[in-house]
Amino acid sequence: MTSTLACRARDDGFLTYFNGEFGVSLRYPPAWTGSEDRKDAIWYRYFVSPAQAPDHTPQAAVTLLVGPLPGTLDQYAQGYLAGNAAAVARDIERAGVKGREYEYASADGKTRYQLLLLSDPPRVYGLYAQGPAASWDAQRTTLASVTDSFALERPKLYPVTRDEAFGFALGVPASWRQTRRFASRDTLLLQYTSPALGMDRGREGVHASLTLTVEPAPGGDDLEAFYDATLKKLGEAFKVVAHDPWRGGGGWVDVMVVESAVSESRIKRFSAVRGGRGYSLILESREDVFPRVHRWADFIAATFSAPPGAPPPPAPTLTFSVTR
Known about the structure:
Residues 2-10 and 309-315 have low confidence and may be disordered. The protein has helices spanning 4-7, 73-81, 133-149, 223-234, 290-301, and strands at 15-19, 24-28, 33-39, 42-48, 51-52, 57-58, 61-68, 88-94, 97-105, 111-120, 123-132, 151-152, 160-163, 168-171, 177-183, 188-193, 198-199, 205-214, 238-246, 251-259, 264-274, 277-286, 317-323. The strands form five sheets. Strands 15, 16, 17, 18, 19, 20, 21, 22 and 23 form a nine-stranded mixed sheet that branches. It has a seven-stranded antiparallel sheet with strand order 3-4-7-11-10-9-8, sandwiched between helices. Strands 1-2-12 form a three-stranded antiparallel sheet. The chain has five helices and 23 strands. It is elongated. Helices cover 17% and strands 47% of the residues. By secondary structure, it is an alpha+beta fold.
């Protein structure tokens, strides 16, 4: 199920952080450390660069934040701008959401700042970068890569793959890319590779692989027959630990555990049947990253459609896998 080749296909020097609770993502250098906190109804995720000699001060720090927006963005920004040097402000937009970006310095000129705020009532989404003025220009390229990558993950805006022959549509984040396609008369396999989500001990990126397979469903429109057949095909190594309705009872979503002598992975699998076709969407991740990435499978699964009247596709098996 997991394709190691595909999962190693794309390392570009940055890691991607994804948060399914708030629907945000961000790219950051792998040497940076991360932590999070909640204060006064605001959620924060901190990204900090390694400290440098001689004073062991980080050269840059970026804070991702989500919280309530009681007024305008300029009013909200005053909590950061007050007491500092005059700011340069400009309008921005991300995923159709309008915002403002501010660049400014501390009153003594020793610290530089960049503040990006997006207004999506009742919430504000923000990115707050800071660093010593002496090294700010040296960090500007890295900071620009981080701030430019800040995205609101909105499934309805994902680029859509449509296949008339197999009668389906699927939205996949722009940060993923297609790495494999195989089709026969009545079966299809599509595979996508995610950006790097973490680093393994060998300093190689840990990726997610998203595979859509289409095949005829046994038992016509019998969901249980399809579900049982696909579960049997997976084998005894795949243990179901949670089993719940999906899409109003028209399908199932499972959480599964796969253990081997050297590793453990987790799977989130969505199953449905329509028009003689069975659909399976499977997220497989390394056990340690599953809590951070499994909601991305929910986002992608929400975009999947097989329009009524479309010729029955064979069962899409959407495989979402994270490996070393």
